[in-house]
TrEMBL record:
Protein task: Catalyzes the sequential NAD-dependent oxidations of L-histidinol to L-histidinaldehyde and then to L-histidine.
Cofactor(s) listed in the protein's UniProt record: Zn(2+)
Active site: 323-324
Organism of derivation: Leuconostoc aquikimchii
Protein name: Histidinol dehydrogenase
CDD domains (alphabetical): Histidinol_dh
Amino acid sequence: MQIIKNESIDQIKTRIRQQTSKTIDPIVASRVENIIATVREKGDAALKAYAQEFDGVTLNELKVSAAQIDLAVKNVAPEVIKALEKAAANIRSFHQLEIQQAFEDSPRPGVIRGTKITPLSAVGIYVPGGTAAYPSSVLMNALPAKIAGVQHIIMVTPPQKEGLNDAVLAAARIAGIDSIYQVGGAQAIAALAYGTESIPQVDKITGPGNAYVATAKRAVYGQVAIDMIAGPSEIGILADDSARAKDIAADLLSQAEHDKNARAILITNSEKLAQAVSDEVNVQLKTLPREDIARDAIDNNGFIYLVETIDDMIDLMNAVAPEHLEIQLENAYDYIDKIQNAGSVFLGKYASEPLGDYLAGPNHILPTGGTARFSSALGVWDFQKRIQYLSYSQDALLDDADDVTVLAREEGLAGHARAIEVRQS
């Protein structure tokens, strides 16, 4: 890994901003626009044609039958089912704490104000296929939606020549997903956004995907809501001399193996640790099954920043705003209040990032590419909306009428003023 030292904090921040700058590939955007238009025009026929073109799969039916799911569950090893059920229980118990509360108040006689919480009616979950089949993502997307009270949860996942991943279908059963369709890519996003003969239109689309999926989500936003534009995985680690190089290297590689564009960043005040981690990464890479992917990520997007103080370390990491942040400092919990920007934080040397990916309960659908500066992990709140309401008695209206009409006329909106004035007589 590249060790960056003898640079000022401002120089490093400039480097970080350059690494996270985003551009939209115009070729991908053009292709996605054509795919969306074709799906809107031709519906299911377009989805089946794209399955043949992009996935090499001929589909008679887009919807996955209950019998297919039953068979998949039987094919999954019992220890995998047990682990998925334990993960589901932890995810439920964590996200139950996120349920929002409605409120109502009466600031004075005759006035009632409030907000009611209501779930979205239908949500679409995108689950990648192929070499990236993640049953854990099924749980992370679907269970918060279930807790929120979403009435219909639809899953889409790319068709596979050898059939859909058994563990993914088992996870869908455990999570209580209502219907599953074999469709992937930009065409799946278009189907969820606009509906087809088989696939109903949804209110929101969640879940990660490739560049075509991300570009399609961006394109349909406004027609439907989306969770976020997910980018490559990333991990940031804050560590001092109390940390073990072997642990840090393993955690950096746990994210580097996802994608050749993944980011792995260590910020430390220890030159000894920086060099030891760089050496250990090279050692562990040699035995990693996904070495080619992880090596590309480390060579191109792996950095160790050496700075003087822990305050400088935290300042820089807040500029990185990583998807996953590990704090491997002595008394790690003491620093949580200083973290301004991160998707999910892992405190101490035993809170390794994969715990959050699979089992502990916090969500692993997280903001990437620096967007943790203004967005959050997926949660129950993403599947609910707030509806405000207001009630006034006649006396309460008369008390406020003059102030409302003054403000309305100040803004040049006489119709607003008159709507109040007609009720004063």
